[in-house]
Amino acid sequence: MSAYQQMIFVNLPVNDLDASKKFFTELGFSINPQFSDENAASVVISDTIVAMLLTKPFYATFTEKEIADATKTSEVLICLSAESREKVDELVEKAVAAGGTASDKVQDMDFMYGRAFDDIDGHTWEVMWMDPSAVEG
Asked: Which tens digit of pLDDT belongs to each residue from 52-61?
């Protein structure tokens, strides 16, 4: 019997579902067709992390709140871990090449390194590497 692994599903409103799918596949992530249709795309980031890209009308069916314009208002900061400094840079560079915007801020400490980018809808994604020996104590 395997241990239960908790997952996270980040639901994000998007302006153009096809453009957003293209953006995330250009970062190296895959789309799970089982949970995707004309209103939503299931972006598999890892075995336990999934970004659900939802058209704004479909997203609106899950909330009575106004949908934030992520290009003008910060609604969430999503942070992904990376296995090395190089992988941090690689993902940010892929995001920029796919139409995203890199932040000028770089967090560079001896034991930690991070950068951020906004996807094509303005959602901010941070990418962070931490030296495993610093975590161990």
From this structure: 999 999 999 9
What's the whole-model pTM score?
A: 0.89
Q: Residue for token digits 């995330």?
A: 24
| Residue 81: band (very low, low, confident or very high) from pLDDT cuts 50, 70, 90 | very high
- Two tokens, residue 13: 């409103």
Segment 16-45 shows an average pLDDT of 98
Residue at 101: amino acid letter: T
Alpha-carbon gap, residue 124 to 78, rounded angstroms: 6
Helix/strand/coil (H, E, C) string of the chain? Answer: CCCCCCCEEEEEEECCHHHHHHHHHHCCCEEEHHHCCCCEEEEECCCCEEEEEEEHHHHHHHCCCCCCCCCCCCCCEEEEECCCHHHHHHHHHHHHHCCCEECCCCEEECCEEEEEEECCCCCEEEEEEECHHHHHC
pLDDT range class, residue 132, cuts 50, 70, 90: confident
Question: Rounded CA gap, 110 and 37, in Å?
Answer: 44
Q: How far apart are CA 98 and CA 121, in angstroms?
A: 12
